[in-house]
Amino acid sequence: MRPAPVLALTGAAVLSMSLLSACGGEKDAEGAAGAAAIGVTATDDACEVAKKELPAGKTTFKVANKGSKVNEFEVLKPDGKILAERENIGPGTSVDFVVSLAAGTYKVLCSAGQTGKGPTQDITVSGQAAGGGDQRLTKAAADYKAFVIANVDDTIAKTKQFVAAVNENDVAKAKELYAPSRVGWETIEPVAEKFGDLDPKIDAREADLSAEEKAGWTGWHLLEKALWKDGSVKGEQKFGEQLLKDLDVLKSRLPGLTLDPVNDMAGGAKELLDEVATGKVTGEEEAFSHTDLVDFKANVDGAKKIYELLKPVVQEKDAALAGDLDENFAAVEKLLAEHEKGDGYVSYETVGKADRKKLGDAVNALGEPLSKLAGAVSK
Question: Which of 60, 179, 206, 276 is the most exposed place for a label (fewest CB within 10 A)?
Fold first, then answer.
C-alpha cells in the first residue's frame, strides 16, 4: 500500500536519497540506449518536462526535486493508471528513472508529499522501439507473471484460513494467521498496486485515510485493528468476506496482465525496497499487530526474486552491479535472521532504535544498486 505522505525522512532515508542523487555531467545523463536523459524539474506545485515529444523505446527521465517536500514521479497511461513510478525523491536530489514506452500518449505526474496527486504534463511517444528484444527478458517476464499468480493463489488460500478464524471470532487463531495471510501480497505488492481500485480496498492503513474515507474502510488492516486493539472481531465477518471477494477479483484480472522487464520488474524491485524503507523500517505498516518484519522479509524476497530472474542479463551487462546486489541482499537477509522467532519474527515493538537503524541502513545500501537495475537491463 502506498505510504502516507512523507513529511520528514529518517537519517537512513536521507542517506538513500543522497546515494540515488545523480547530478553529474553528460555521461551521467545518458539514457538506457545512450540518448540524453529527459530532464524533469519537480517542485511543490509544478512538474516541468524538458521534452514532450519522445521516440518509443527505453527512456531515462532525470527527475530533479527542487521543492521542499519528498516527491514522487509517475508515468500514467491514458486511462490514468500508473505505468511506472519512482517514489521517495528527496528535496534537493535527483534520480535517473528508466522506463519503457510504446507509441501513444501519456501523462507524467509529480506528487509533492507523495499523495498520488499533483501537476501533470502531457507527453507523446511515436515510432517503434528498436530491436526485437532480448529473449532472456521475455522469459523472465513470463516467469515473473507465473510467480505473481502463484503468490496471489497462496494469499487467497491463507486468507481463507484467516477469515475462517475471524468468522468464528477466534481471536488467538486469527492473530496467528494474520501475518502469514499477507506474505504473498507483500511479495508482489507493486503488481497488486497496479490495480488501483483494489489496492486501497485490500490494504489501506487507517493512518492514510481521511475522516470521510474511514467510513468506507475495508481490508486486512481494519481486521488487524479489531484483533489487536479491540480484542474482538465479532460483527466484523463481512469485512473478511469482502477481503476474499476483492482478492478473487485481483486473481481474475491477472491472466490479461502484461509485465514489462524494465517498468514492472526492475522498477517493481525498487518499489519493494521503497516500501520497506517508508513503511516497514518505520513500523507504520502494521501499527497494531507489529508484524512488520514479516512484511519486510516478503518485500525483500519479492525484490530478490525479480533480480534473480533478471540476473543472467545483469551479469552479462554489468557484472559489478550483480556483485553489489548479491552482497547487499545477503547483508539484509543476515540482519533479518537475527530477529527470527520460530517460523516468523519477533514483534517489531521489541526491536530497538539501534537495530532499526541497522536494518534501515542495510535497506538503503541495497536500494542504491537496485536503483540501477532498470538501466542495466536496458543497456
Answer: 206
DSSP letter assigned to residue 22: -
Cell of 35: 540518448
Taking Cα atoms as reference points, which of 289, 378, 377, 304 lies closest to residue 336?
304
Dump the DSSP string for 295-350.
HHHHHHHHHHHHHHHHHHHHHHH-HHHHHHHHHHHHHHHHHHHTTEETTEE--GGG
Query: Is there a single domain that holds both residue 125 and residue 137?
Result: no
CATH code of the domain in which 311 resides:
1.20.1420.20
The owner of cell 479489531 is 226
Instruction: For 78-133, write each residue's pLDDT tens digit.
Output: 888 888 888 889 999 998 888 888 899 999 999 999 888 999 999 999 987 665 56
User: In this predicted model, what pLDDT tens digit does every residue of 175-199 receive, in sequence order?
Assistant: 999 999 999 999 999 898 888 789 9
End-to-end CA distance of the chain: 31
Per 3-state DSSP, what percentage of the chain is helix, strand, and coil (rounded to 5)? 55, 15, 30
- Give the pLDDT score at 88: 83
Asked whether residue 236 falls in the same domain as residue 296, the answer is yes
- Report how many domains make up the chain: 2
Least confident of 26-35, 112-121, 300-309: 26-35
Written as one string, the DSSP assignment of 353-368 is: HHHHHHHHHHHHHHHH
pTM score, two decimals? 0.79
Q: Which three cell numbers stand for residue 69?
A: 517536500
Q: What is the mean pLDDT of residues 282-304?
A: 96
Whether 65 and 3 share a structural domain: yes
Burial of 127 (0-12, 13-18, 19+ CB in 10 A): exposed
| CA-to-CA dists, residue 278 to 7, 73, 95, angstroms | 11, 16, 18
- Supply the DSSP symbol for 352: -
Whether residues 343 and 307 share a domain: the answer is yes
Chain mean pLDDT for the chain: 88
- The residues with which 112 forms a beta bridge, in sequence order, are 71
Q: How far is CA 177 from the centre of its chain?
A: 24
